[in-house]
Amino acid sequence: MSKESSRHGDTTASTYTDPGADTKEGYAISKRSRTLARSVVGNASVEDRVRQRCSVAVGDFAMAPLLRFHDDPVGAALAALDAHAPIITDIRMVQVGIQKKGHASIVLCALDSGAEIAKERGITRSSAGFLALKEKLPGAIVVIGNAPSALISLCSMIEDGIRPAVVIGAPVGFVNAAESKALLRMLAIPSISTEGTRGGTPVAVAAINEIITLFIEGAGNEGPAHRL
User: For the domain 66-220, what is the CATH superfamily, name and number?
Assistant: First the structure.
């Protein structure tokens, strides 16, 4: 595992922000879950914040040690959000799950592009979508929670010189999932990934949403109603 990034400001205090919880009950549930996660996972760094959120998302603290952080991905993602970089996902579930409040980044899904490429080459729609979105990838935040084929295609594009700002790669499954994430970790690109076959949409969405929460906290945009 690469070295942990800096704290990026006061992002590990005992207060808690959840921009996605918009009712009193929702805040209470979210806060209780996070308090437990802090006690189990730790709360010393922004990486710990991501580990907490991902563990809560899957209901299993065994997820925390499976997360891998390479080349300060949280810092890279925060900078990309500040630059209003697009967020590009592999499937609709990831796109829908990403927090839309508190940032100006458009959230795109690869499945909306590349239908002809998929048909011509006989490849998955998600892989074809990333090929079709090639010009939007430089500087983008890429979030892959389902499709190992899409992550493998993306890694090949990165090897050819395409430079996303950061890649969150957490595809799940027994076919190429572990291999695709291992390939991602070999590249000189900021990334968050999971070790082995585990991962999935909840993990990928939790990781980017926690980074968005950190961005909102850093920008001072959360407001009193969002602070727990």
Answer: Cobalamin biosynthesis CobH/CbiC, precorrin-8X methylmutase (3.40.50.10230)
